[in-house]
Amino acid sequence: MGIAFSRAHTGTRFQYSTESSLGASKCGEGDAEKLTNPLERVQGREARGQERKRARPEAIGRTSTISSQCPSPPLPTPGLPIAEPTRSFWAFPPSAILARLVQDPDESQCAAVPEYADVVVIGSGISGASFVRALLNADRKRINKGGYEHERLSVVMLEAHDACSGATGRNGGHINPPLYHDYEDLKNTLGLRAAQHIIRFRLAHLEIQRHIGQTDAADADCREVEAVDVYYDEETFEEAKRLLKVYKRDMPVEAEPYECLGGEAARKRYQLSEYALGCITTRAGAVHPYRFVAGVLARLLEDHANQFRLYTKTPCTSITGPSENESAYTLHTPRGTLKTKHIVHLTNAHVGALVPGLAPVVTQVRETMSAQRPGRKLRTKMGGGARSYVFYDDPVYKGFDYLTQLRSGEHELMFGGGLEGESVGCTRMPGMYDLHSAAHVSGALSVYFGAVNWGAEGATAVDGGIWAAGRVKALWSGELSESADGFPWVGRIPESVTGRERPSKTDKEMASPGEWVSAGYSGEGMVHAWLCAKAVALMVLGMEDDKNVCDDMNGFGAGQSVAEWLPARFLISETRLRQVQVCRRQGRRSRANVYKS
Question: Which string of b and e fits 294-332 if b means at least 16 CB within 10 Å?
């Protein structure tokens, strides 16, 4: 059958059944194999050489084992987001949203946080923007319809640094869901119905985010592009073609846009190097992620000026649960304490800092991104920003690299490194990419496209100001998350996981108080986060059973409740956490004993 090809971020996926399933599974004995720590790396180049002589591993993912000259670090306990030492090209110039924030009279710093808010959101990336948008719009809509007597909800968003300064503002700008790459594995693991549900959930993000971009963030250039998967490894290409056949057979409507092109035809159409063996193409999306989130947040601050307040440079450093003398949660920040009965954790890779029970299952990985000037010959042949690329060289050991192009400015190539560009701890400064990461990302593009197609360097004739004047204008890194089982963690967090009791019932028409989460996107946040966070917003409102609240989802989920359109596999539960932890302790993963939904 060949290698098991997957574009899922997590190389090793733990399987189990959730509480919403009809039964719980145990780690299978017959299909057992040792787990790979999400941060483990094969030691030294000699180890890589030896591994190349052996059979390829069962699964290929974004974070398959790779070699490193650094010691393999243990699973870290996630801390609060750091002040990133590298400058993301996306975030300059800063959005005008910064001028709209609540400030002291002398405008020197953010004002003290209020004493109380109905809902406190931690994190200002794409999850935070989606959550607040869904919550406040749904709350206003139901009040306008009548039947709800409470006042509008008050929402405070806390951001440790600048708005959208985390993973969303440092990513690759892709809205490119892994579909044929993952479908067969999902079907074998979860069953036909659940696999197709997840595929359609991912696909829905393309049109939904493009619509949001048009209404809330026009300058984000959220657009449809031709997505080109380029293969340089023969065995991987053959396996990809086989998986595409499976996907087309089972989901012909969704697979209709796909085309497979091999050899010289592929190299000529897409200006690729002689080492490219072929391509698989389809439709996907691309976006300026920072402007997208900033645009949504800016509109929320305008439309809900009395309900929504955003505090930047205001980390939540700790949370105190309710007590005999206090009926709410107390959040501690440098700008004072804030009380609430609903806390929503939308910090993705950093969720374990305030919810220690999630630290073992949502871990951190730092990868590298760049903005580069295209070669002079290639610049006119790239499709003018109408294409995105994923390059597969040797995904067993290197993962893959990804590329989009801006449609303005110098038509910069926004290029990120997969495993070969992943920082694994060999840095002198927290948050800095390592030399291996920087070298790979800085030099790979002219190799992927070929020197003849690349042409002369497109360097500027004068100094680039805050950006470098050579091929690589900007180089930065960012932290993304890895989920221990490959799926997001969404919903109400059990008290056993937070370690804090829940407050007494709220005095407004909402769900019972508690802490909530949407995190663990495993490098695929742009095709999971928006709808996962929207689902949490409806849960907080107590509207998860309402079938008429999906009018801005471009037909996806029409006439369905959250439980119907959100994949059940994503829901957080004590059972799911327990199964993952059991598999970790036993050093096994279960594929055979998973409940088929």
Answer: bbbbbbbbeebeebbbbbbbbbbeebebbeeeeebbebe
Give dist(CA 485, CA 263) in Å, integer. 36
DSSP state at residue 45: H
**Cα–Cα nearest to 311, from 69, 556, 120:** 120
Q: Do residues 10 and 62 touch, judged by C-beta distance below 8 A?
A: yes
Checking phi first, is residue 173 left (phi over 0); if not, alpha (psi -120 to 50) or beta?
left
User: Residue 191 carries which side chain, given as an amino acid letter?
Assistant: G
Sign of CA dihedral 74, 80, 83, 88: positive
In eight-state DSSP terms, residue 99 is: G
381: number of Cβ within 10 Å: 15
Which single residue is written with the structure tokens 């060289």?
393
In CATH, what class is 89-167+290-361+485-566? alpha beta
Q: What is the DSSP letter of 193?
A: H
Start-end of H helices in 106-159:
126-145
Q: How far apart are CA 362 and CA 486, in angstroms?
A: 10
More confident position, 507 or 13: 507
Q: What angle do CA 239, 243, 247 make, to 5 degrees?
A: 170
Kindly state the tokens that stand for 427: 């840095």
Which position has the higher pLDDT, 367 or 237? Answer: 237
Strands 400-405 and 362-372: unpaired
Q: What tens digit of pLDDT does each residue of 106-147 get?
A: 444 558 999 999 999 999 999 999 999 999 999 998 888 776
Is residue 73 classed as helix, strand or coil in its secondary structure? Answer: coil
Proportion of the chain in helix, strand, coil states, percent, rounded to 5: 30, 20, 50
Contact, 135 vs 155, CB < 8 A? yes
Token duo for residue 370: 């760049």
Cis peptide before 74 (omega within 30 of 0): no
Whole-prediction pTM: 0.86
Q: Please answer whether residues 24 and 593 qualify as being in contact, where contact means their C-beta atoms are separated by less than 8 angstroms.
A: no
Pairwise CA distance, residues 7 & 257, whole Å: 19
Annotate 195-223 with three-state secondary structure: HHHHHHHHHHHHHHHHHHHHHHCHHHCCE
Q: What does the domain layout of the chain look like in residue ranges?
A: 8-74+568-597, 89-167+290-361+485-566
Provide the angle, in degrees to the nearest 10, between the axes of the packed helices 192-216 and 180-190.
140
Residues of the chain with pLDDT > 90: what percent? 63
> 525 and 480 in contact (C-beta within 8 Å)?
yes
Amino acid (1-letter code) at residue 301: L
